[in-house]
Structures are given as structure tokens and as C-alpha cells.
Amino acid sequence: MLKDKVKQYGTSYGMEIYSDTELVALMTGVSEDAAQDIDMEYPLMNSSIKGVGAHTVMVMEAINEYARRKYEHLDESVLTVHSPEDAYRYTHGKLEHEPKEHFCVILLDTKNHILGFREVSVGSLSASIVHPREVMVEAVKAHAASVILVHNHPSGDPTPSREDTEITEHLVKAGKVLCIPVLDHIIVGLGKFFSFKGKGLIG
Hints:
This protein has helices at residues 2-9, 20-28, 32-35, 54-70, 84-95, 132-141, 162-178, and strands spanning 102-108, 114-122, 146-152, 182-188, 193-195. It is of the alpha+beta class. It has a 5-stranded mixed sheet, with helices on both faces.
């Protein structure tokens, strides 16, 4: 149970040890059973769930607004991605100083206008952490025509690792299956970046 987990571990190992459902329960104060059905992206859709009243919906809206403000320093002057430099310029202000690896996705329409920016996972990258389902579900929700993958290297060196290359290949294949192409994968370093497309590693 979450209550026992909190009592035993608290924040000793960071919040990464809690599942998405457990995090929702902690943030909103609802039961774990109710938290399983909550859609944090659309708070007003949750009012029919038992234990979710007007105050809880307001809490969810407040959490979403705080998260929006956290990402406010994305370069919103970049409205359309024409090149790897545009993708880097749009995201580096958020990612280049993060102490952990953040794997994110830029969602694009048919004309490469930016529809949104979503964080998929936090922590050292591995195929088990960055699953195609978690990336592509964001694209499907936003009705995106294509996506650009972005993550940072806290070391400041954007040179891709073997895991970075494997994850990119994995997600490119998934995008082809769903007809949502992965246009590029940008690795953000300190004042510099690596583009898989720019290096000819994505067709």
C-alpha cells in the first residue's frame, strides 16, 4: 500500500520510486483505486470518479498550471521547426542545466508547427524506461503528424551513447508502424547539441 511505502521510504530514494498512480494519489489526496482512473491532463473529465470533488479537480488544475509555468522558459519564439537548430533552440533553456536526463518529445503538425512539448521520463535512459508506447501516446493524443525526440546529457557532452542510438532506432521503427515519423533526435549538451538527423542517422 502507498501509505506503508511512504512510511518506509518517504523521499529517501527520490520520487522516482513511486508509480504514476501513486504520484497522482500523493498529489491529489485521493485513494489509490481512484488515482488509477484519473486523467491528470484533463482534470474536468474526472468529476464522475468516486472521491473526486470540485476541490480535487481544482488541485489538479493547479498542478497543471504549475507544470506549465515550469516549462514557460522554452523558447516560444520558435513556432515552427525548420532545422535541428530550431529544435535545440526551442528546448535547450529547459534541459541543458538539468541534473538528470529528461527524455521529451516535441509534437508537430503536418507543417512542422509545434503543437506541444511533453516530458516522457526522467533518469538514465534505457529501453525499459523510454517505451515507444509512452512516446507515441502523446503524439496520438495531440493528433501530431510527426515528432522530434529530445533529451539532455547532464555531463554537458551531447555525444550519443550506445543506449541513445538503440532507443532512437527503436522509436523510429515504432513511428513508422504508427505513421507518425520521428524526424530527429536532439541531444542537448552545455551550449551545444547533437542531431541524429544532422549526422545522417535518421533518414
